[in-house]
Write a structure and sequence with these properties.
One of its GO terms (biological process) is protein import into nucleus. It is built from 57 helices and two strands. The chain is mainly α. It has a two-stranded antiparallel sheet with strand order 1-2. The protein is elongated, with a radius of gyration of 35 Å.
Length: 1104
């Protein structure tokens, strides 16, 4: 029968499809026979055809790799296979067949080693590894590498002995022995325990030597060998720490060695980024940031063949855009440095290289400088904004004007990154920067209008333009006509599809800033978009349809209900029709965001369309579309014609089998069937679809109110699953959606909403607590902390009603403040409290701080005071001079806001808080002064009896601050602080000296939220008939006119002004009319509108 099987396998080697199909069918029948295993073993060991032997070995591995097939075999058969396979392995002359047989050995080992049923294998390994013959040593170590991958846990009792063998085999660098040893060590690394740690650790110097040797004759093997470092860093970083410095030095050397190939350099550079994230304190303590930056900057400045159109600068950071190049990897590692290292440790190293590079005149050097600046913009944002912004912007503008394409593109990329991450400060330079971008846009229009192709760098130019537009808001208006003229010109010219897509996107960004001021351009925009939206697009213009949908959604959100409502129903129909016609994740996600934007206009009127919308969105959340299976690079895999046929059942009925011997239960219970699978990934478009589905559900829940209620439970169940999704962006979006769901349920009055809130709040609060403690991504943890603050602010006390919720929230704040969460690098060595942090680590702590005052608004003053007393030492600790400016500023701001939440209970904390605020008010840093002055004001207002004796001291501090203050927000906070003191206790303030000074500092310059405090003070003095208010009434009314109906007045301020002006116009007609006669017409109209808006308070007798 073996000869018959061999004949069948030979048919599969014939270059005739009909013969192959015949052989495939016959093989399927043979595999159902009870004796097929023995026949396959005979073919594997004796066939003259190497490929036939290989096929037999692979089929055996596939079949007997499954537990249910192996356990059915008699013991004698198993023993025969185990003996025969080792003999066949030694005898086999062909490399590809040996590989297939060795892989078969590995799957048998998985079944047999754990129960001690294959001592011959261990003897075989010992004999082979210690052989004097090179080919036997190679085979022995290769078998160990495979068995450790398939049955590592079963080998653990023998690990100590194997490590002793490895000490020798690592030195065997003239063959593949050292490489296969590295593979075995990589497999064992996650399994090492305390018993084997010292022996494993002792091998690392030899590991480094082996990798260095591999670099000279097989870079791919060296790169794969370095996988050991990744696994150790991820699973057993303690093993790596004693030898981390030489490991990093090896990576520095490989990174900077331009004679090496991209693969191994990218491996080294990527590891440097990963270890910086994981062991940032080690990097700083050992002063390794200097060589790290030097190596990455050297790579960033390197010349490469694709520098003329470097994908990185063209906006192609993903697939096909240089994602596998050393330059791209170095950029990502610099980004990791900025996100995880203290800026005052990183930036001096970097700036010392950037400045000479910018002056060098060498395009690659200048390119590297701009790239480096761009990549640290996010992580070092505060430091760059406050210390380096203007000179760097001047350098960037100079680069954009360069004739050299590489310099121009890299400068545009840097400007885009700066525009995104250095807000709001960078927007102050719009008068300098926008003309530069407009000029480039004009040149681009000329080039493409003459039939030229898209100039390189156009992506980055539009990117920078968009980010500026979105952040400028009203300051964009003077530039709006020129900008829209240029964008319409791009759309009207015979430009490429890509250019048109960029222009349509820029129109959406412009609408976000200009809002209703886009009205004059609305019809023209709609006409241009209509063709892309209403007609089926070819594959090459599909991106225009998606981008037009996105821009339409932004117009809906920004134009206002009165301008867009008439178009909204047609837009819903358009989106639903598009989803029916195009089965595409980009179309779906963009339609979902369009529906979310339309919900902000239509509100509950969207209800009739929600069944169709929600059905499709739930499918998107449940979908596994886009999941890509990555298979191991296996030269011994089955041919595609027979792949899978080896799994045919050898018994027809199967009724007598145990449930765990076959069927779906067995396949799910063990991963034998996935032995060839290296891993899984999800295509970006499908990831973004899930993320944007969560974002859109959040918006629908927010805007549709009770109309969304029937979908709340189903949405909650599906979005809740996304909280455990592997991608952090999806998890973050899911956190936002779940937060809004509970807020929306709390605000709907229907009984089922109340029941839904009680259900979901008891799910959400504990889940967010789990994520804060265990999620490795800071962005997700920050989203959860922000969610706590938001839900406490919006819903209040009901959030804390269920048992354990208060403790969960408080404990999360404590753990973040004490840096005990997973994302705060728990694997890193402990450091002192005074160690500097990366800006994003500080940001995480700020998010935790924002929960505290929100918590106070959801609790009674006395109850909150008890919790605040526990948290206070953590925040006081962050106000030390050894802490960073950002930490001190945020802590003082949090304490000040907490005083507001404490109300009258804040008196018990005066002795602890007052010295902090007084000291902070004298700080050299603007933000610290501003927050401290605010704190003095709220403490003076709410400190009750305990603060009264300190009024003179507070006023003295404020007076000193005012005499030398130039920071606009701090000046505004001084006005607010004095106003609070006056409102609370006017008799404790020398009004004749103080009040005129305050008036002289008004109107406010920047912190317009303080306007409500100021006018509340004025109204309190008015009601109390204070003579200083009467003496300065005209001045006060003029201030009211300057603020009323402007962006400086929120709803509370508006009401206060209406009451004040209405009362003054009646009680003091002479002063009021005199002011009216001398005011500008616009201010007169504001005062008259305020006076007519509300009934004045009861008349008061004019004060003398």
């Amino acid at each position: 029968m073996a000869s018959k099987l061999e004949e069948i396998l030979n048919k599969l080697l014939v270059a005739d499809n009909a013969v192959i199909q015949e052989g495939t069918k016959e093989l399927g029948e043979v595999l159902k026979g009870p004796s097929v295993v023995g026949e396959l073993c005979q073919v594997m060991g004796s066939s003259r055809g190497p490929q036939v032997r290989q096929y037999a070995a692979v089929i055996l591995r596939k079949r007997l790799g499954k537990t249910r097939h192996w356990t059915k075999l008699d013991a004698d058969v198993k023993n025969g296979i185990k003996q025969g396979v080792l003999e066949a392995l030694v005898r086999e002359p062909e490399s590809s067949v040996r590989t297939a047989i060795a892989q078969f050995v590995a799957v048998i080992a998985r079944h047999e080693l754990g129960s001690g049923n294959w001592p011959a294998l261990l003897q075989f390994i010992q004999q082979m590894v210690q052989s004097q013959a090179v080919h036997e040593r190679q085979l022995g170590v290769y078998v160990v590498s495979l068995v450790s991958g398939a049955a590592g846990e079963q080998l653990m009792p023998h690990l100590r002995h194997l490590l002793t063998l490895f000490s020798t085999t690592l030195e065997d660098t003239d063959s593949t022995v050292s490489f296969h040893t590295l593979q075995a060590l990589t497999n064992f690394a996650p399994l090492v325990d305390q018993d084997n740690m010292a022996e494993f650790q002792a091998l690392l110097p030899k590991v480094l030597a082996a990798i260095k040797a591999l670099l000279t004759h097989d870079e791919d093997q060296a790169a794969e060998g370095m996988e050991l470092f990744d696994v150790l860093a991820e699973c057993e970083v303690a093993l790596l720490v004693p030898h981390l410095r030489p490991v990093l030095q090896l990576c520095f050397d490989i990174s900077a060695n331009a004679t090496l190939g991209d693969s191994v350099r990218v491996k080294a550079i990527t590891f440097l980024g990963y270890i910086t994230r994981l062991k940032k304190k080690y990097i700083v303590k050992n002063k390794l940031q200097e060589p790290l930056v030097a190596a990455m900057f050297s790579v960033a400045c390197s010349e490469s063949e694709d520098d003329s159109c470097l994908g990185f600068f063209r906006g192609e950071e993903g697939e096909g855009g240089g994602g596998g190049s050393p330059v791209h990897a170095a950029a990502q590692t610099l980004d990791a440095c900025a996100l995880h290292l203290p800026p005052d440790k990183l930036l001096p190293c970097l700036m010392g290289r950037v400045e000479p590079a910018l002056k060098s005149g060498s395009p690659p050097q200048i390119k590297g400088a701009y790239l480096a600046l761009a990549m640290v913009a996010e992580g070092c944002a505060d430091t760059l904004r406050h210390k380096h912004l203007h000179p760097l912007l001047q350098c960037i503008c100079h680069g954009i004007a360069s004739e050299n394409q590489l310099i121009r593109n890299s400068a545009l990329f840097a400007l885009g990154q700066f525009a995104e991450h250095l807000q709001p400060d960078i927007s102050k330079f719009h008068a300098e920067l926008l003309p530069v971008l407009f000029s480039y846009l004009t040149q681009t229009c000329v080039v493409v209008g003459q039939g030229g192709s898209d100039p390189p760098g156009v992506d980055r130019m539009f990117y920078a333009l968009e980010v500026f537009c979105e952040n400028l808001e009203s300051e964009l208006l003077p530039h709006l006509p020129v900008l829209m003229e240029r964008l319409f010109a791009v759309l009207a010219a015979p430009t490429s599809v890509h250019m048109k897509e960029l222009a349509i996107s820029a129109i959406g960004a412009t609408a976000n800033a200009a809002k209703e001021h886009m009205s004059p351009y609305f019809q023209q925009i709609v006409e241009m978009l209509k063709g892309y939206l209403t007609l089926d697009q070819a594959e090459e213009t599909m991106s225009l349809q998606v981008q037009s949908l996105d821009t339409l959604g932004q117009l809906a959100r920004c134009m206002g209900v009165e301008n867009f409502l008439v178009y909204a129903p047609d837009c819903v129909t358009l989106g639903l029709d598009l989803m029916k016609r195009r089965d595409d994740p980009d179309v779906r996600k963009t339609c979902y965001l369009l529906f979310a934007s339309l919900a902000s206009v239509m509100k509950g009127d969207l209800a009739q369309h929600l069944p169709s919308i929600m059905e499709r969105m739930m499918v998107s959340l449940r979908s596994t579309d886009g999941v890509v299976t990555h298979f191991k690079d296996d030269p011994s895999a089955l041919p595609t014609t027979i792949e899978g046929i080896s799994d045919s059942e050898d018994d027809e009925g199967g009724e007598g089998e145990d449930e765990d011997e076959g069927g779906e239960g067995d396949l799910l219970a063990n991963d034998d069937d996935d032995e060839d699978v290296a891993g899984y990934s999800v295509q970006n478009a499908f990831l973004e679809e899930k993320e944007d589905t969560c974002v859109a559900l959040r918006e629908l829940s927010l805007h549709c109110g009770a109309a969304f209620l029937p979908y709340m439970d189903t949405s909650g169940e599906e979005v809740y699953k996304m909280l455990n999704y592997p991608n952090e962006d999806v998890r973050q979006a899911a956190v936002g959606a779940m937060t809004q769901f509970v807020i929306s349920l709390a605000k709907v009055t229907a009984p089922e909403a109340n029941e839904g809130f009680r259900k979901w709040i008891q799910v959400v609060i504990p889940k967010f607590s789990e994520l804060i403690r265990t999620d490795e991504e800071r962005s997700v943890v920050m989203a959860c902390l922000e969610a706590y603050a938001e839900v406490l602010k919006e819903v209040g006390a009901p959030v804390l009603a269920p048992q354990g919720h208060l403790e969960a929230i408080i404990n999360c704040v404590k753990e973040v403040m004490q840096k005990k969460t997973m994302c705060q690098d728990m694997a890193d060595e402990a450091g002192s409290e005074d160690e500097e942090e990366a800006e994003h680590d500080e940001m995480l702590i700020e998010y935790a701080g924002e929960v505290v005052p929100s918590l106070g608004k959801a609790m009674g003053h006395a109850e909150y005071a008890a919790q605040f007393a526990e948290l206070l030492p953590l925040f006081i600790n962050k106000t030390k001079k050894s802490c960073s400016v950002a930490e001190r500023s945020f802590s003082l701001g949090t304490l000040a806001e907490s005083v507001e939440a404490l109300g009258s209970a804040s008196g018990q904390f005066v002795s602890q808080l007052l010295p902090l605020f007084q000291q902070g008010a004298r700080s050299e840093d603007d933000e610290i002064r501003s927050n401290s002055i605010y704190g003095l004001g709220v403490l003076g207002k709410h400190g009750s009896e305990a603060i009264l004796s300190h009024y003179n001291n507070i006023l003295t501090v404020l007076s000193e601050a005012l005499s030398k203050e130039s920071f606009p927000r701090a000046l505004d906070n001084i006005c607010g602080a004095v106003a609070r003191l006056i409102t609370a206790n006017p008799t404790k303030v020398p009004m004749e000296q103080v009040f005129p000074v305050v008036l002289g500092c008004l109107p406010l310059r920047e912190d317009f939220e303080e306007n409500s405090t100021v006018f509340e003070c004025f109204l309190a003095l008015y009601r109390g008939q204070h003579p200083m208010l009467a003496q300065n009434l005209v001045h006060v009314l003029r201030l009211a006119a300057l603020v009323y109906t402007t962006k400086q007045a929120d709803q509370k301020t508006t009401q206060l002004i209406q009451e004040l002006v209405g009362s003054a116009s009646r009680d003091f007609p002479h002063q009021y009319n005199s002011l009216i006669e001398n005011l500008e017409p616009e201010l007169v109209a504001r005062l008259q509108a305020a006076a007519a808006a509300v009934a004045p308070v009861a008349p008061v007798a004019p004060a003398s």
